[in-house]
Amino acid sequence: MTRRKIWKEFFKKTVLPAAAALFLFLMFNPVFTKNGKTDYFYVWLCCGIPFGIRRMSVWLVPHGYDIAGTVGIVALNFILGGIIGGVVLVWRLVCAAWYIPLTVYRLLTAGKGSIIEDPVE
Q1: Which parts of the chain are beta strand (E)?
Q2: Is 121 among the domain residues?
């Protein structure tokens, strides 16, 4: 593995998820901070929505409801997507923390003629 591939993988697996989480946290900060107190369920929900909506395999489809029932079901879809996305976001941040020492190790051993194979994805 070349140093360029190592840095590219480091950026993709560490910097981008951490930057996305920080951006979402700063963007939604007024939503989940009231009177100087942070509601951590709203943090989980707001920061997880972009990561979880696309991973939901089943959407609840409102059929035969009035407007209030339809809005309620759509809101439930977003809440479930936020909860799923919170788990995905935490997993991505754990993996990002793991890739920091792994990248250091790969950079130290890349120039010594060792063979580091590409991970299977």
Answers
A1: 33-34, 37-38
A2: no
For residue 52, the tally of other CB atoms under 10 A from its CB is: 22
pLDDT digits (tens, 9 = 90+) for 72-84: 888 888 888 899 9
- 84-101 pLDDT tens trace: 999 999 999 999 999 999
Asked if the structure places residue 118 within a domain, the reply is: no
Total number of domains constituting the chain: 1
Identify the three-state secondary structure at position 85: helix
- Is residue 115 domain-resident? no
As a whole number of angstroms, the distance between CA 27 and CA 33 comes to: 12
Distance CA 72, CA 40 (A): 22
Burial class (CB in 10 A: 0-12, 13-18, 19+), 110: middle
Taking alpha carbons only, the member of 106, 120, 115 closest to residue 7 is: 106
